[in-house]
Amino acid sequence: MKKKLRFCLTLICLFLPGVFIANSQVLVESVAAVVGNEVIYLSDLENTVGDLIRNGDKTPINNLTCRVFQQMLVSKLFMDQARIDSINVTDDAVEGDLNMRMNDAIRTAGSEEALVTYFKKSMPEIKRDIKKKLLEQQIVGEVQSKISKNITITPAALKKFYNSLPKDSLPVVPAKYEISLIQSDPPDNEENKAEARQKLLDIRSQILAGKSFNVLAIMYSEDPESAKNGGEIGFRVRGELEKPYADAAFSLTKNTVSRIVETKYGFHIIQLIERKGDLANTRHILIRPKVKPEQAAKAMARLDSIANLIRKDSIKFETAAMRFSTHKDSRINGGKMVSPNPSARISWFTLEELNPEMYVKIREMKVGEISDPFKTTDENNNEVFRIIKLDNVLPAHSANLKDDYQSLYDAALVKERGDVFDKWVKNKIDITYIKISEEFKSCDFLKQGWLK
Fold it and tell me: In the chain, which residues fall in CATH 3.10.50.40?
């Protein structure tokens, strides 16, 4: 009866929002709090706490409830401000993120059915709840951006921030390296590609003749992660897949097998397991072109000649990189390696950020030294050959303004924004109508001005 009553009251909340306007000063059972014109429903609070517990949060239930309740109250302050400032976010703004979150959830759970069982909600309910949270996060972010848009850190303020940090608690920054490289792809690789295609054609013929795609994926696929699952990669949205792969996958009907598809990772055959709107679950078999010993020897000899020319000052490393390197991302920088992240094109790397072969080479080199040629893999895990030059080393050290200015600036900016938000929240509490349900008034944080 209590659940039915709560459900009925929730429906009243949805269809008669005027019941909860601030000046009514009336709280019914299904409402945990009112913040301005915003409402925190008891069911939303309980569902969020339940989801955290199912995800392994071991916080005592009372403490966890109070923590979530505080986060919700603060969020509603920002939401109320968004209403005042006429800040709106359309569904389109979160559609991509929503699809990605749904896809991740399905992939983690294993299937839609497992996800429904886990959350004890239907798929439309799960999608609705995630969408609601994403929209609120987006709106809160818009308000916070407006509040903090003029915040900057002056050099004097940064120095003051740095001096305020206890010297014995300054983080230790690991050693970082600046590296340049010249890469050579395997010569005569078209021949290797043709052989890879032929191998995949043979496998495809076996599948069309009735053999199990799953079994052949386990036996032959060169994508180790999916091979363990019979080639299955789980539900993905189109944008998560390489375009040729996505085009093929989304054109298939259930259980049919694609023709051979080439991506930067190699060659695939794809089988559609299931498609639901913008989500597709596929399995694939990946075959990569194989480099023959004589091709490897030829590539290594070519790089060795280039390295010797550079060591003799017959050509500058930067010039050689622009003329001979096949590594597109570094070639335009004269061989200088930079982060692939377009928002942070930094050229400093820790050893742990390098692949094993690069790690071993750099660890043994001195600044200015050029390595011997070696075999490694590129960002797509394809076999390539490289020589590298160690341009500079920043030894491990405690964070300081000279070497770590940007990192300390970012930390100071985060702290300043946090302080501004805290002050804004305190002022907003003072001028906003807030009503807390009796059952939550034992939460300690409410003593900080929330109770009126």
Answer: 176-187+292-395, 189-287
Q: Could you confirm whether domain 2-151+417-447 is CATH 1.10.4030.10?
A: yes
User: For 155-174, what is each residue's pLDDT tens digit?
Assistant: 999 999 999 999 888 989 99
Q: How far apart are CA 360 and CA 347, in angstroms?
A: 19
Contacts of 88 (CB under 8 A, 6+ apart): 82, 139
Q: Could you give the 3-state DSSP secondary structure of residue 67?
A: helix
* Residue 252 one-letter amino acid: L
Residue 349 is which amino acid?
F
> With contact defined as beta carbons under 8 Å apart, do 184 and 385 qualify?
yes
Torsion of CA 393, 396, 398, 399, to 10 degrees: 40
CA 343, distance to chain mean position in Å, is 14
**Cα 58-436-15 angle, rounded to 5 deg:** 100
Residue 222 DSSP one-character state: S
CATH classification (class only), 176-187+292-395: alpha beta
Instruction: Supply the pLDDT for residue 119.
Output: 82
Fold of 189-287: Chitinase A; domain 3 (3.10.50)
Q: Which amino acid does the sequence have at 441?
A: K
- Taking the C-alpha atoms of residue 160 and residue 155, their distance in angstroms, rounded to an integer, is 9
Sole residue written with tokens 């299955």? 232
Distance, in Å, from the CA atom of 102 to the CA atom of 115, rounded to the nearest integer, reads: 10
CA distance 438 to 421: 27
The residue-averaged pLDDT of 271-293 equals: 92
Distance CA 186, CA 372 (A): 17
Per DSSP, 382 falls in state: -
Distance from C-alpha of 38 to C-alpha of 78, rounded to nearest angstrom = 10
Task: Looking at 165-228, list the stretches that DSSP marks H as alpha helix, in order from N- to C-terminal side.
Answer: 189-208, 213-220, 224-227
Closest CA to 376 of 345, 343, 337, 322: 337
Average pLDDT over residues 222-248: 92
Asked if residue 406 lies in contact with residue 162, where contact means CB atoms within 8 angstroms, the answer is: no
> Which has the closest alpha carbon to 216: 208, 316, 78, 408?
208
What's residue 108's pLDDT? 76
